[in-house]
Give the backbone structure.
Amino acid sequence: MSLTPVMAMLSGASGLTDAKASDTTPPRRMSAYQRAGLLGLALGLCVPLVVAGLLVPDPRGYGTHEQLGLPPCSATVLFGGRCPTCGMTTAWAWLVRLRICEALRANVGGVLLGLATAVSIPWLVLSALRGRWFLWVPNGGQVFVASVVFLGVTFLDWLIRLVIGLS
Protein backbone atom coordinates (compact mmCIF):
# COMPACT_ATOMS: atom_id res chain seq x y z
CA MET A 1 0.00 0.00 0.00
CA SER A 2 1.43 3.38 -0.90
CA LEU A 3 1.71 6.27 1.50
CA THR A 4 -0.19 9.48 1.10
CA PRO A 5 2.14 12.38 0.22
CA VAL A 6 1.88 13.90 3.71
CA MET A 7 2.48 10.59 5.48
CA ALA A 8 5.37 9.81 3.12
CA MET A 9 6.98 13.15 3.95
CA LEU A 10 6.50 12.71 7.69
CA SER A 11 7.73 9.10 7.71
CA GLY A 12 10.76 9.88 5.55
CA ALA A 13 9.75 7.30 2.97
CA SER A 14 11.04 7.90 -0.52
CA GLY A 15 9.11 5.04 -2.06
CA LEU A 16 7.31 1.80 -1.33
CA THR A 17 10.47 0.04 -0.17
CA ASP A 18 11.08 2.63 2.55
CA ALA A 19 7.48 2.42 3.75
CA LYS A 20 7.81 -1.29 4.46
CA ALA A 21 11.22 -1.65 6.07
CA SER A 22 12.22 -5.16 7.07
CA ASP A 23 12.45 -6.16 10.71
CA THR A 24 16.25 -6.14 10.56
CA THR A 25 16.59 -2.67 9.06
CA PRO A 26 16.70 0.04 11.73
CA PRO A 27 14.19 2.84 11.09
CA ARG A 28 15.61 5.97 9.51
CA ARG A 29 15.92 9.01 11.70
CA MET A 30 13.51 11.83 10.82
CA SER A 31 14.87 15.05 9.39
CA ALA A 32 14.53 18.32 11.28
CA TYR A 33 11.74 19.34 8.87
CA GLN A 34 9.81 16.14 9.53
CA ARG A 35 10.20 16.53 13.28
CA ALA A 36 9.07 20.17 13.08
CA GLY A 37 6.10 19.04 10.97
CA LEU A 38 5.07 16.54 13.64
CA LEU A 39 5.35 19.17 16.37
CA GLY A 40 3.33 21.60 14.25
CA LEU A 41 0.67 18.96 13.67
CA ALA A 42 0.53 18.17 17.40
CA LEU A 43 0.18 21.87 18.19
CA GLY A 44 -2.54 22.22 15.57
CA LEU A 45 -4.44 19.30 17.10
CA CYS A 46 -4.35 21.03 20.49
CA VAL A 47 -6.38 23.96 19.15
CA PRO A 48 -9.78 22.23 18.82
CA LEU A 49 -9.33 20.60 22.22
CA VAL A 50 -8.60 23.97 23.84
CA VAL A 51 -11.54 25.58 22.03
CA ALA A 52 -13.80 22.72 23.16
CA GLY A 53 -12.70 23.39 26.72
CA LEU A 54 -13.69 27.05 26.40
CA LEU A 55 -17.19 26.28 25.10
CA VAL A 56 -20.19 25.49 27.27
CA PRO A 57 -21.80 22.24 26.06
CA ASP A 58 -25.32 22.88 24.79
CA PRO A 59 -27.79 20.86 26.90
CA ARG A 60 -29.70 19.87 23.72
CA GLY A 61 -26.72 17.72 22.68
CA TYR A 62 -26.02 19.85 19.61
CA GLY A 63 -25.61 23.52 18.76
CA THR A 64 -22.49 24.23 20.83
CA HIS A 65 -20.74 25.41 17.65
CA GLU A 66 -23.09 28.42 17.57
CA GLN A 67 -21.01 29.92 20.43
CA LEU A 68 -18.26 30.33 17.82
CA GLY A 69 -20.50 32.58 15.73
CA LEU A 70 -21.44 29.79 13.31
CA PRO A 71 -25.05 29.42 12.14
CA PRO A 72 -27.33 26.60 13.27
CA CYS A 73 -27.06 23.36 11.30
CA SER A 74 -28.86 23.63 7.96
CA ALA A 75 -30.40 20.16 8.38
CA THR A 76 -31.91 21.18 11.70
CA VAL A 77 -33.26 24.43 10.27
CA LEU A 78 -34.59 22.97 7.00
CA PHE A 79 -35.73 19.50 8.06
CA GLY A 80 -36.08 19.71 11.83
CA GLY A 81 -33.67 16.84 12.35
CA ARG A 82 -30.02 16.34 13.01
CA CYS A 83 -27.36 15.67 10.39
CA PRO A 84 -24.59 13.07 10.96
CA THR A 85 -22.22 15.70 12.37
CA CYS A 86 -24.73 17.45 14.63
CA GLY A 87 -23.44 17.24 18.17
CA MET A 88 -19.73 16.80 17.37
CA THR A 89 -18.69 20.11 18.90
CA THR A 90 -20.90 19.36 21.89
CA ALA A 91 -19.35 15.89 22.17
CA TRP A 92 -15.86 17.43 22.24
CA ALA A 93 -16.97 20.01 24.83
CA TRP A 94 -18.21 17.20 27.08
CA LEU A 95 -15.22 14.97 26.30
CA VAL A 96 -12.60 17.51 27.44
CA ARG A 97 -14.54 17.68 30.72
CA LEU A 98 -14.33 13.86 30.93
CA ARG A 99 -18.13 13.60 30.84
CA ILE A 100 -18.09 10.56 28.57
CA CYS A 101 -21.79 9.62 28.83
CA GLU A 102 -22.90 13.12 27.86
CA ALA A 103 -20.35 13.16 25.04
CA LEU A 104 -21.62 9.83 23.68
CA ARG A 105 -25.21 11.09 23.85
CA ALA A 106 -24.19 14.11 21.77
CA ASN A 107 -22.32 12.24 18.99
CA VAL A 108 -20.49 8.90 19.14
CA GLY A 109 -18.36 9.68 16.09
CA GLY A 110 -17.33 12.97 17.68
CA VAL A 111 -16.15 11.10 20.76
CA LEU A 112 -14.03 8.77 18.61
CA LEU A 113 -12.54 11.70 16.72
CA GLY A 114 -11.85 13.58 19.96
CA LEU A 115 -10.18 10.54 21.54
CA ALA A 116 -8.08 9.95 18.43
CA THR A 117 -7.00 13.59 18.55
CA ALA A 118 -6.14 13.43 22.25
CA VAL A 119 -4.09 10.24 21.77
CA SER A 120 -2.37 11.56 18.65
CA ILE A 121 -0.90 14.63 20.34
CA PRO A 122 1.50 12.87 22.75
CA TRP A 123 2.31 10.26 20.09
CA LEU A 124 3.30 12.96 17.60
CA VAL A 125 5.33 14.85 20.21
CA LEU A 126 7.16 11.71 21.38
CA SER A 127 7.86 10.70 17.79
CA ALA A 128 9.23 14.16 17.01
CA LEU A 129 11.42 14.23 20.11
CA ARG A 130 12.81 10.74 19.44
CA GLY A 131 13.31 11.36 15.74
CA ARG A 132 11.63 8.02 15.05
CA TRP A 133 8.02 6.94 15.13
CA PHE A 134 6.97 5.98 18.64
CA LEU A 135 5.42 2.49 18.90
CA TRP A 136 4.26 2.21 15.27
CA VAL A 137 4.83 3.71 11.83
CA PRO A 138 1.63 5.09 10.28
CA ASN A 139 0.74 4.27 6.72
CA GLY A 140 -2.01 5.17 4.29
CA GLY A 141 -3.83 1.88 4.84
CA GLN A 142 -4.14 2.46 8.56
CA VAL A 143 -5.34 6.02 8.05
CA PHE A 144 -7.89 4.78 5.50
CA VAL A 145 -9.22 2.07 7.85
CA ALA A 146 -9.45 4.53 10.76
CA SER A 147 -11.32 6.99 8.52
CA VAL A 148 -13.79 4.33 7.36
CA VAL A 149 -14.42 3.23 10.96
CA PHE A 150 -14.95 6.82 12.08
CA LEU A 151 -17.34 7.58 9.21
CA GLY A 152 -19.16 4.27 9.68
CA VAL A 153 -19.71 4.90 13.39
CA THR A 154 -20.82 8.47 12.70
CA PHE A 155 -23.41 7.39 10.13
CA LEU A 156 -24.58 4.42 12.21
CA ASP A 157 -25.09 6.73 15.20
CA TRP A 158 -27.06 9.11 12.97
CA LEU A 159 -29.22 6.31 11.52
CA ILE A 160 -30.00 4.96 14.98
CA ARG A 161 -31.05 8.46 16.07
CA LEU A 162 -33.31 8.73 13.01
CA VAL A 163 -34.92 5.33 13.57
CA ILE A 164 -35.59 5.65 17.29
CA GLY A 165 -36.37 9.35 17.10
CA LEU A 166 -33.61 10.82 19.26
CA SER A 167 -33.19 14.53 18.70
About this structure: The chain is about 60% helix and 0% strand. The mean pLDDT is 87. Residues 28 and 132 are 7 Å apart (CA to CA). The two ends are 41 Å apart (CA to CA).
